[in-house]
Amino acid sequence: MNVTTTRGWDEFMEGVWRQNPVFVMALGMCPMLAVTVSGVNALSMGVATIFVLVCSCALVSLMRGITPKEVRIAVYIVIIATFVTVVDYAIQAISLALYDALGAFIQLIVVNCIILGRAEAHASKNPPLPAMINAAGMGIGFTIGLLALGTVREILGAGTLFGVSLFGAGFQPWVIMLLPPGGFFVLGAWLLLFSWWARRNAGKPVKEAAENV
Amino acid sequence: MSSELQQPSPPATAQSTPTAAMIRTLGLVSAICGLIIVGAYQSTFAAVAANKRIATERAVFKVIPAAKSIAEFVALPAGGVEKVGAGDTANLAPGAVKFFAAYDGSGQLAGIAAEGGAKGYADTVRIMFGYSPTCQCIVGIGVVSMRETPGIGDKILVDKDFLANFAALDAKLNADLNALAHEVKTVKHGTKTNPWQIDAIAGATITSRAVGKAINDAAQVLLPMVVPQLEKMKERS
Protein backbone atom coordinates (compact mmCIF):
# COMPACT_ATOMS: atom_id res chain seq x y z
CA MET A 1 0.00 0.00 0.00
CA ASN A 2 2.63 2.42 1.15
CA VAL A 3 4.80 1.57 -1.83
CA THR A 4 2.02 2.27 -4.33
CA THR A 5 1.16 5.59 -2.67
CA THR A 6 4.77 6.66 -2.85
CA ARG A 7 4.92 5.64 -6.49
CA GLY A 8 1.74 7.60 -7.23
CA TRP A 9 3.15 10.64 -5.48
CA ASP A 10 6.42 10.30 -7.39
CA GLU A 11 4.51 9.95 -10.62
CA PHE A 12 2.57 13.10 -9.76
CA MET A 13 5.55 15.21 -8.69
CA GLU A 14 7.42 14.18 -11.83
CA GLY A 15 5.47 16.70 -13.90
CA VAL A 16 4.92 19.27 -11.17
CA TRP A 17 8.56 19.59 -10.34
CA ARG A 18 11.35 17.34 -11.61
CA GLN A 19 10.21 17.25 -15.25
CA ASN A 20 8.21 20.47 -15.17
CA PRO A 21 7.06 20.92 -18.78
CA VAL A 22 7.75 24.65 -18.77
CA PHE A 23 10.82 25.23 -16.67
CA VAL A 24 12.65 21.97 -17.24
CA MET A 25 11.54 20.66 -20.63
CA ALA A 26 10.59 24.04 -22.18
CA LEU A 27 7.50 22.59 -23.88
CA GLY A 28 4.24 24.30 -24.77
CA MET A 29 5.88 27.69 -25.24
CA CYS A 30 3.32 28.87 -27.78
CA PRO A 31 0.27 29.14 -25.48
CA MET A 32 2.69 29.96 -22.66
CA LEU A 33 3.76 33.23 -24.25
CA ALA A 34 0.51 34.06 -25.99
CA VAL A 35 -2.24 33.80 -23.40
CA THR A 36 -0.43 34.82 -20.23
CA VAL A 37 -1.36 38.49 -20.22
CA SER A 38 -3.46 38.01 -17.09
CA GLY A 39 -3.78 35.62 -14.19
CA VAL A 40 -7.32 34.64 -15.14
CA ASN A 41 -6.30 33.75 -18.70
CA ALA A 42 -3.34 31.74 -17.44
CA LEU A 43 -5.44 29.83 -14.92
CA SER A 44 -8.21 29.06 -17.44
CA MET A 45 -5.71 27.89 -20.02
CA GLY A 46 -4.07 25.71 -17.37
CA VAL A 47 -7.36 24.15 -16.28
CA ALA A 48 -8.37 23.51 -19.90
CA THR A 49 -5.02 21.85 -20.57
CA ILE A 50 -5.24 19.71 -17.41
CA PHE A 51 -8.68 18.49 -18.46
CA VAL A 52 -7.55 17.58 -21.99
CA LEU A 53 -4.35 16.01 -20.69
CA VAL A 54 -5.99 13.81 -18.04
CA CYS A 55 -8.94 12.71 -20.18
CA SER A 56 -6.91 11.96 -23.30
CA CYS A 57 -4.23 10.10 -21.34
CA ALA A 58 -6.93 7.99 -19.66
CA LEU A 59 -8.47 7.05 -23.00
CA VAL A 60 -5.12 6.48 -24.70
CA SER A 61 -4.14 4.23 -21.81
CA LEU A 62 -7.41 2.28 -21.97
CA MET A 63 -6.95 1.75 -25.70
CA ARG A 64 -3.26 0.89 -25.45
CA GLY A 65 -3.85 -2.86 -25.77
CA ILE A 66 -5.69 -2.59 -29.07
CA THR A 67 -3.78 0.29 -30.67
CA PRO A 68 -1.48 -0.99 -33.42
CA LYS A 69 1.68 1.08 -33.51
CA GLU A 70 1.16 1.91 -37.20
CA VAL A 71 -1.93 4.01 -36.48
CA ARG A 72 -1.13 5.20 -32.96
CA ILE A 73 -0.49 8.87 -33.82
CA ALA A 74 -3.81 9.09 -35.65
CA VAL A 75 -5.55 7.54 -32.65
CA TYR A 76 -3.88 9.93 -30.20
CA ILE A 77 -4.67 12.99 -32.26
CA VAL A 78 -8.32 12.03 -32.67
CA ILE A 79 -8.63 11.44 -28.93
CA ILE A 80 -6.88 14.72 -28.05
CA ALA A 81 -8.90 16.67 -30.61
CA THR A 82 -12.09 15.26 -29.12
CA PHE A 83 -11.39 16.54 -25.64
CA VAL A 84 -10.20 19.89 -26.98
CA THR A 85 -13.56 20.23 -28.73
CA VAL A 86 -15.31 19.42 -25.46
CA VAL A 87 -13.29 22.11 -23.67
CA ASP A 88 -14.00 24.54 -26.49
CA TYR A 89 -17.77 24.11 -26.06
CA ALA A 90 -17.49 24.18 -22.29
CA ILE A 91 -15.63 27.50 -22.28
CA GLN A 92 -18.14 29.01 -24.71
CA ALA A 93 -20.89 27.90 -22.36
CA ILE A 94 -19.15 29.31 -19.30
CA SER A 95 -17.98 32.69 -20.60
CA LEU A 96 -17.76 34.18 -24.07
CA ALA A 97 -15.45 36.91 -22.80
CA LEU A 98 -12.97 34.29 -21.66
CA TYR A 99 -13.41 32.43 -24.94
CA ASP A 100 -12.52 35.60 -26.85
CA ALA A 101 -9.55 36.30 -24.58
CA LEU A 102 -8.04 32.85 -25.13
CA GLY A 103 -8.83 33.01 -28.84
CA ALA A 104 -7.37 30.38 -31.11
CA PHE A 105 -5.21 28.97 -28.33
CA ILE A 106 -8.02 26.77 -27.07
CA GLN A 107 -8.19 24.94 -30.39
CA LEU A 108 -4.41 24.90 -30.51
CA ILE A 109 -4.30 22.75 -27.37
CA VAL A 110 -4.62 19.90 -29.92
CA VAL A 111 -1.05 20.46 -31.05
CA ASN A 112 0.37 21.21 -27.61
CA CYS A 113 3.41 18.97 -27.54
CA ILE A 114 3.03 18.30 -23.81
CA ILE A 115 -0.17 16.36 -24.46
CA LEU A 116 0.96 14.33 -27.46
CA GLY A 117 4.25 13.77 -25.63
CA ARG A 118 2.47 12.37 -22.57
CA ALA A 119 0.28 10.12 -24.73
CA GLU A 120 3.26 8.74 -26.62
CA ALA A 121 5.81 8.53 -23.81
CA HIS A 122 3.70 7.57 -20.82
CA ALA A 123 -0.01 6.82 -21.28
CA SER A 124 0.55 4.33 -24.12
CA LYS A 125 2.75 2.21 -21.85
CA ASN A 126 0.97 2.43 -18.48
CA PRO A 127 -2.41 1.51 -16.95
CA PRO A 128 -5.05 4.27 -16.74
CA LEU A 129 -4.55 5.29 -13.10
CA PRO A 130 -0.80 6.00 -13.21
CA ALA A 131 -1.27 7.58 -16.63
CA MET A 132 -3.89 9.95 -15.25
CA ILE A 133 -1.80 10.78 -12.18
CA ASN A 134 1.20 11.50 -14.34
CA ALA A 135 -0.92 13.59 -16.71
CA ALA A 136 -2.43 15.55 -13.82
CA GLY A 137 1.07 16.28 -12.50
CA MET A 138 2.22 17.50 -15.90
CA GLY A 139 -0.92 19.59 -16.28
CA ILE A 140 -0.44 21.19 -12.88
CA GLY A 141 3.22 21.80 -13.66
CA PHE A 142 2.16 23.54 -16.88
CA THR A 143 -0.45 25.58 -14.99
CA ILE A 144 2.16 26.67 -12.44
CA GLY A 145 4.31 27.84 -15.34
CA LEU A 146 1.38 29.71 -16.92
CA LEU A 147 0.52 31.34 -13.60
CA ALA A 148 4.14 32.30 -12.97
CA LEU A 149 4.10 34.25 -16.22
CA GLY A 150 0.51 35.44 -16.09
CA THR A 151 0.60 36.92 -12.61
CA VAL A 152 3.91 38.73 -13.11
CA ARG A 153 2.81 40.14 -16.46
CA GLU A 154 -0.55 41.23 -15.08
CA ILE A 155 0.95 42.84 -11.98
CA LEU A 156 3.56 44.79 -13.95
CA GLY A 157 1.59 45.37 -17.12
CA ALA A 158 -1.77 46.36 -15.69
CA GLY A 159 -1.15 46.87 -11.97
CA THR A 160 -3.80 44.26 -11.12
CA LEU A 161 -3.84 40.65 -9.94
CA PHE A 162 -6.81 38.52 -11.07
CA GLY A 163 -8.54 41.82 -11.88
CA VAL A 164 -8.02 43.34 -8.41
CA SER A 165 -6.16 46.65 -8.50
CA LEU A 166 -2.97 46.49 -6.45
CA PHE A 167 -1.25 49.85 -6.56
CA GLY A 168 -3.99 52.46 -6.82
CA ALA A 169 -4.36 55.16 -9.44
CA GLY A 170 -0.78 56.47 -9.23
CA PHE A 171 0.69 53.34 -10.84
CA GLN A 172 1.90 53.72 -14.41
CA PRO A 173 1.53 50.25 -16.01
CA TRP A 174 4.45 48.76 -17.92
CA VAL A 175 2.50 48.18 -21.11
CA ILE A 176 5.40 46.28 -22.67
CA MET A 177 4.76 43.42 -20.24
CA LEU A 178 1.40 42.80 -21.95
CA LEU A 179 2.99 42.83 -25.39
CA PRO A 180 4.85 39.82 -26.84
CA PRO A 181 8.32 41.03 -25.76
CA GLY A 182 7.12 41.15 -22.14
CA GLY A 183 6.29 37.46 -22.38
CA PHE A 184 9.84 36.66 -23.43
CA PHE A 185 11.35 38.87 -20.71
CA VAL A 186 9.33 37.25 -17.95
CA LEU A 187 9.85 33.72 -19.29
CA GLY A 188 13.58 34.36 -19.54
CA ALA A 189 13.69 35.65 -15.98
CA TRP A 190 11.86 32.61 -14.63
CA LEU A 191 14.07 30.18 -16.56
CA LEU A 192 17.12 31.97 -15.20
CA LEU A 193 15.80 31.73 -11.66
CA PHE A 194 15.01 28.03 -12.05
CA SER A 195 18.32 27.02 -13.53
CA TRP A 196 20.16 29.05 -10.89
CA TRP A 197 18.17 27.26 -8.21
CA ALA A 198 18.72 23.85 -9.81
CA ARG A 199 22.45 24.51 -10.07
CA ARG A 200 22.70 25.71 -6.49
CA ASN A 201 20.89 22.56 -5.33
CA ALA A 202 23.11 20.33 -7.42
CA GLY A 203 26.10 21.54 -5.42
CA LYS A 204 24.58 20.41 -2.11
CA PRO A 205 25.26 17.02 -0.48
CA VAL A 206 23.13 14.24 -1.96
CA LYS A 207 21.14 13.61 1.23
CA GLU A 208 19.98 17.17 1.54
CA ALA A 209 19.05 17.36 -2.13
CA ALA A 210 16.98 14.19 -1.80
CA GLU A 211 15.08 15.67 1.14
CA ASN A 212 14.28 18.76 -0.84
CA VAL A 213 12.62 16.66 -3.53
CA MET B 1 26.10 -3.59 -51.35
CA SER B 2 24.73 -7.10 -50.97
CA SER B 3 23.18 -6.36 -47.57
CA GLU B 4 21.31 -3.44 -49.12
CA LEU B 5 19.82 -5.71 -51.74
CA GLN B 6 18.52 -8.14 -49.15
CA GLN B 7 16.84 -5.58 -46.95
CA PRO B 8 13.45 -4.93 -48.56
CA SER B 9 11.99 -8.41 -48.06
CA PRO B 10 11.87 -9.16 -44.27
CA PRO B 11 9.84 -6.30 -42.61
CA ALA B 12 6.82 -6.61 -44.89
CA THR B 13 5.91 -10.14 -43.85
CA ALA B 14 7.46 -10.58 -40.41
CA GLN B 15 5.20 -8.87 -37.83
CA SER B 16 2.84 -6.57 -39.65
CA THR B 17 -0.46 -5.77 -37.99
CA PRO B 18 -3.47 -7.12 -39.85
CA THR B 19 -5.36 -4.43 -41.75
CA ALA B 20 -8.58 -5.38 -39.98
CA ALA B 21 -7.05 -4.60 -36.57
CA MET B 22 -6.01 -1.12 -37.65
CA ILE B 23 -9.39 -0.34 -39.16
CA ARG B 24 -11.17 -1.75 -36.12
CA THR B 25 -9.18 0.43 -33.71
CA LEU B 26 -9.56 3.57 -35.79
CA GLY B 27 -13.27 2.88 -36.19
CA LEU B 28 -13.73 2.31 -32.49
CA VAL B 29 -11.82 5.46 -31.55
CA SER B 30 -13.79 7.52 -34.05
CA ALA B 31 -17.09 6.16 -32.74
CA ILE B 32 -16.20 6.89 -29.10
CA CYS B 33 -14.88 10.34 -29.93
CA GLY B 34 -17.88 11.08 -32.11
CA LEU B 35 -20.23 10.29 -29.26
CA ILE B 36 -18.25 12.46 -26.83
CA ILE B 37 -18.18 15.44 -29.21
CA VAL B 38 -21.87 15.25 -30.08
CA GLY B 39 -22.70 14.83 -26.42
CA ALA B 40 -20.68 17.91 -25.49
CA TYR B 41 -22.24 19.93 -28.30
CA GLN B 42 -25.78 18.95 -27.35
CA SER B 43 -25.33 19.59 -23.67
CA THR B 44 -23.73 23.02 -24.09
CA PHE B 45 -25.87 24.20 -27.01
CA ALA B 46 -28.50 26.02 -24.93
CA ALA B 47 -25.94 27.72 -22.68
CA VAL B 48 -23.76 28.81 -25.61
CA ALA B 49 -26.75 30.23 -27.51
CA ALA B 50 -27.90 32.12 -24.41
CA ASN B 51 -24.39 33.50 -23.87
CA LYS B 52 -24.18 34.69 -27.47
CA ARG B 53 -27.59 36.35 -27.24
CA ILE B 54 -26.64 38.13 -24.02
CA ALA B 55 -23.34 39.26 -25.55
CA THR B 56 -25.12 40.70 -28.60
CA GLU B 57 -27.74 42.42 -26.45
CA ARG B 58 -25.07 43.94 -24.25
CA ALA B 59 -23.18 45.22 -27.28
CA VAL B 60 -26.33 46.83 -28.69
CA PHE B 61 -27.47 48.26 -25.34
CA LYS B 62 -24.06 49.86 -24.98
CA VAL B 63 -24.35 51.85 -28.21
CA ILE B 64 -28.03 52.73 -27.81
CA PRO B 65 -28.47 53.69 -24.16
CA ALA B 66 -32.30 53.82 -24.23
CA ALA B 67 -32.60 50.27 -25.56
CA LYS B 68 -34.34 47.62 -23.50
CA SER B 69 -34.82 44.86 -26.10
CA ILE B 70 -33.52 44.05 -29.57
CA ALA B 71 -34.65 42.36 -32.77
CA GLU B 72 -32.42 41.15 -35.54
CA PHE B 73 -33.09 42.34 -39.09
CA VAL B 74 -31.59 41.96 -42.52
CA ALA B 75 -31.60 44.82 -45.03
CA LEU B 76 -32.00 43.47 -48.55
CA PRO B 77 -30.21 45.05 -51.51
CA ALA B 78 -33.43 45.05 -53.55
CA GLY B 79 -35.05 47.23 -50.90
CA GLY B 80 -36.97 46.27 -47.83
CA VAL B 81 -36.04 44.80 -44.51
CA GLU B 82 -36.72 41.37 -43.12
CA LYS B 83 -36.84 40.18 -39.56
CA VAL B 84 -34.70 37.13 -38.88
CA GLY B 85 -34.29 34.84 -35.91
CA ALA B 86 -31.45 35.50 -33.49
CA GLY B 87 -28.16 34.35 -34.96
CA ASP B 88 -29.93 33.05 -38.06
CA THR B 89 -27.71 34.74 -40.61
CA ALA B 90 -25.87 31.78 -42.06
CA ASN B 91 -27.57 32.03 -45.47
CA LEU B 92 -27.55 35.75 -46.10
CA ALA B 93 -28.24 36.82 -49.66
CA PRO B 94 -25.26 38.55 -51.29
CA GLY B 95 -25.35 42.26 -50.54
CA ALA B 96 -27.75 41.88 -47.64
CA VAL B 97 -26.68 43.53 -44.40
CA LYS B 98 -27.48 42.38 -40.90
CA PHE B 99 -28.47 44.96 -38.30
CA PHE B 100 -30.28 45.22 -34.99
CA ALA B 101 -33.35 47.26 -34.16
CA ALA B 102 -33.37 48.36 -30.53
CA TYR B 103 -36.58 49.18 -28.69
CA ASP B 104 -37.06 51.15 -25.51
CA GLY B 105 -39.14 50.12 -22.50
CA SER B 106 -42.47 51.01 -24.18
CA GLY B 107 -41.66 49.06 -27.35
CA GLN B 108 -40.85 52.12 -29.49
CA LEU B 109 -37.84 52.10 -31.81
CA ALA B 110 -34.91 53.61 -29.95
CA GLY B 111 -32.34 53.19 -32.70
CA ILE B 112 -30.58 50.74 -34.92
CA ALA B 113 -27.19 49.17 -34.44
CA ALA B 114 -24.88 47.51 -36.92
CA GLU B 115 -21.34 46.27 -37.18
CA GLY B 116 -18.56 47.63 -39.33
CA GLY B 117 -14.89 46.88 -39.75
CA ALA B 118 -11.76 48.49 -41.13
CA LYS B 119 -8.07 47.78 -41.07
CA GLY B 120 -6.42 49.18 -37.96
CA TYR B 121 -2.80 49.07 -36.87
CA ALA B 122 -2.55 45.36 -36.04
CA ASP B 123 -5.65 43.80 -37.55
CA THR B 124 -9.21 44.59 -38.50
CA VAL B 125 -10.96 46.74 -35.91
CA ARG B 126 -14.58 45.59 -35.74
CA ILE B 127 -16.97 48.00 -34.12
CA MET B 128 -20.67 48.23 -33.39
CA PHE B 129 -22.33 51.62 -33.80
CA GLY B 130 -25.74 52.88 -32.79
CA TYR B 131 -27.80 55.15 -35.06
CA SER B 132 -30.65 57.25 -33.76
CA PRO B 133 -33.38 58.06 -36.32
CA THR B 134 -34.51 61.06 -34.25
CA CYS B 135 -31.28 63.02 -34.62
CA GLN B 136 -30.08 61.11 -37.71
CA CYS B 137 -26.77 60.64 -36.05
CA ILE B 138 -24.47 58.06 -34.54
CA VAL B 139 -25.02 57.97 -30.79
CA GLY B 140 -22.50 55.45 -29.58
CA ILE B 141 -19.81 52.97 -30.55
CA GLY B 142 -18.48 49.81 -29.02
CA VAL B 143 -15.63 47.54 -30.05
CA VAL B 144 -16.57 44.03 -31.18
CA SER B 145 -13.02 42.83 -31.70
CA MET B 146 -9.59 44.32 -32.18
CA ARG B 147 -5.95 43.51 -31.64
CA GLU B 148 -4.63 47.02 -31.32
CA THR B 149 -1.67 47.83 -29.11
CA PRO B 150 -2.62 47.90 -25.42
CA GLY B 151 -2.19 51.38 -23.99
CA ILE B 152 -2.13 53.05 -27.43
CA GLY B 153 -4.70 51.83 -29.94
CA ASP B 154 -7.05 50.47 -27.34
CA LYS B 155 -7.57 53.99 -26.00
CA ILE B 156 -10.54 54.11 -28.37
CA LEU B 157 -12.36 52.19 -25.65
CA VAL B 158 -11.71 54.65 -22.83
CA ASP B 159 -10.48 58.01 -24.14
CA LYS B 160 -13.20 60.46 -23.05
CA ASP B 161 -12.44 63.09 -25.69
CA PHE B 162 -12.54 60.47 -28.42
CA LEU B 163 -15.79 58.94 -27.21
CA ALA B 164 -17.32 62.43 -27.05
CA ASN B 165 -17.18 62.39 -30.87
CA PHE B 166 -19.94 59.81 -30.81
CA ALA B 167 -22.40 61.67 -28.63
CA ALA B 168 -24.04 62.95 -31.84
CA LEU B 169 -21.99 62.20 -34.93
CA ASP B 170 -23.84 63.53 -37.95
CA ALA B 171 -24.97 60.76 -40.34
CA LYS B 172 -27.74 62.44 -42.35
CA LEU B 173 -28.56 61.04 -45.76
CA ASN B 174 -28.32 63.20 -48.86
CA ALA B 175 -31.41 64.40 -50.74
CA ASP B 176 -31.50 61.31 -52.99
CA LEU B 177 -31.32 58.99 -49.97
CA ASN B 178 -28.58 56.93 -51.62
CA ALA B 179 -25.57 57.93 -49.52
CA LEU B 180 -24.59 59.96 -46.50
CA ALA B 181 -24.79 63.72 -46.99
CA HIS B 182 -21.30 64.01 -45.53
CA GLU B 183 -18.75 61.26 -45.38
CA VAL B 184 -17.92 60.31 -41.78
CA LYS B 185 -14.24 61.04 -41.55
CA THR B 186 -11.53 60.93 -38.92
CA VAL B 187 -9.46 64.09 -38.83
CA LYS B 188 -6.17 64.88 -37.14
CA HIS B 189 -6.34 65.52 -33.42
CA GLY B 190 -7.63 69.00 -32.68
CA THR B 191 -8.88 69.85 -36.18
CA LYS B 192 -12.50 68.75 -35.90
CA THR B 193 -14.78 71.49 -37.23
CA ASN B 194 -17.91 69.70 -38.47
CA PRO B 195 -20.35 67.38 -36.69
CA TRP B 196 -19.60 64.53 -39.14
CA GLN B 197 -15.91 64.56 -38.37
CA ILE B 198 -14.16 62.44 -35.74
CA ASP B 199 -11.35 64.01 -33.76
CA ALA B 200 -8.53 61.41 -33.69
CA ILE B 201 -6.66 60.44 -30.53
CA ALA B 202 -3.18 61.93 -30.60
CA GLY B 203 -0.75 59.02 -30.95
CA ALA B 204 -3.44 56.58 -32.04
CA THR B 205 -4.37 58.10 -35.37
CA ILE B 206 -4.38 54.82 -37.29
CA THR B 207 -6.81 53.15 -34.94
CA SER B 208 -8.96 56.29 -34.81
CA ARG B 209 -9.07 56.35 -38.61
CA ALA B 210 -10.08 52.69 -38.67
CA VAL B 211 -13.06 53.52 -36.46
CA GLY B 212 -14.10 56.35 -38.77
CA LYS B 213 -13.70 54.24 -41.87
CA ALA B 214 -15.58 51.31 -40.32
CA ILE B 215 -18.53 53.56 -39.47
CA ASN B 216 -18.47 55.29 -42.85
CA ASP B 217 -18.23 52.11 -44.92
CA ALA B 218 -21.00 50.39 -43.00
CA ALA B 219 -23.28 53.44 -42.77
CA GLN B 220 -22.93 54.31 -46.46
CA VAL B 221 -24.29 50.88 -47.35
CA LEU B 222 -26.76 50.27 -44.57
CA LEU B 223 -28.47 53.59 -43.89
CA PRO B 224 -29.73 54.23 -47.45
CA MET B 225 -31.35 50.79 -47.35
CA VAL B 226 -32.78 51.07 -43.85
CA VAL B 227 -33.81 54.69 -43.33
CA PRO B 228 -36.71 54.59 -45.87
CA GLN B 229 -37.98 51.47 -44.13
CA LEU B 230 -37.89 52.80 -40.58
CA GLU B 231 -41.71 53.06 -40.39
CA LYS B 232 -41.96 49.27 -40.66
CA MET B 233 -39.84 48.82 -37.56
CA LYS B 234 -41.37 51.67 -35.57
CA GLU B 235 -42.89 49.38 -32.98
CA ARG B 236 -41.76 46.09 -31.60
CA SER B 237 -43.71 43.31 -33.29
Explain this structure to me?
The complex is a heterodimer of chains A (213) and B (237). With 213 residues, chain A is mainly α. Chain A has 9 helices and 2 strands, in the order H-H-H-H-H-H-H-E-E-H-H. A two-stranded antiparallel sheet of chain A has the order 1-2. In chain A, a hairpin with a 2-residue loop joins strand 1 (160-161) and strand 2 (164-165). The two termini of chain A are 21 Å apart. The mean pLDDT of chain A is 85. By secondary structure, chain B is of the alpha+beta class. In chain B, 35% of the residues lie in helices and 23% in strands. Chain B has 5 helices and 9 strands. Chain B has helices at residues 2-6, 9-14, 19-63, 160-164, 205-226, and strands spanning 69-75, 81-84, 97-103, 109-119, 124-132, 137-145, 169-170, 185-187, 197-199. In chain B, the strands form 2 sheets. Chain B has a 7-stranded antiparallel beta sheet. A two-stranded parallel ribbon of chain B has the order 8-9. The longest helix of chain B is centred in the N-terminal third of the chain and has 45 residues, at 19-63. The radius of gyration of chain B is 27 Å and the shape is globular. The model of chain B is unreliable at 1-14 (pLDDT under 50). The chains are: A mainly alpha (213), B alpha+beta (237). The A-B interface holds A 59, 63, 66-71, 74-75, 78-79, 81-83, 85-86, 89-90, 92-97, 100, 157, 173, 175, 178-179 and B 17, 21-22, 24-26, 28-30, 32-33, 36-37, 40-41, 44, 47-48, 51-52, 55, 145, 149-152.
List low-confidence stretches of chain A.
none
Shape type of chain A: globular
| Biggest beta sheet summary of chain B | 7 strands, antiparallel
Oligomer: heterodimer
Q: Approximately how much helix is present in the residues of chain A?
A: 55-70%
Order of helices and strands of chain B: HHHEEEEEEHEEEH
Rounded to the nearest angstrom, the radius of gyration of chain A is 19 Å
Strand arrangement across the biggest beta sheet of chain B:
2-1-3-4-5-6-7
Distance between the termini of chain B: 86 Å
Shape of chain B: globular
Q: Please give the count of helices of chain B.
A: 5
Query: Secondary-structure element order of chain A, as H and E?
Result: HHHHHHHEEHH
Question: What proportion strand of chain B?
Answer: 15-25%
Report how far the terminal alpha carbons of chain A are from each other: 21 Å
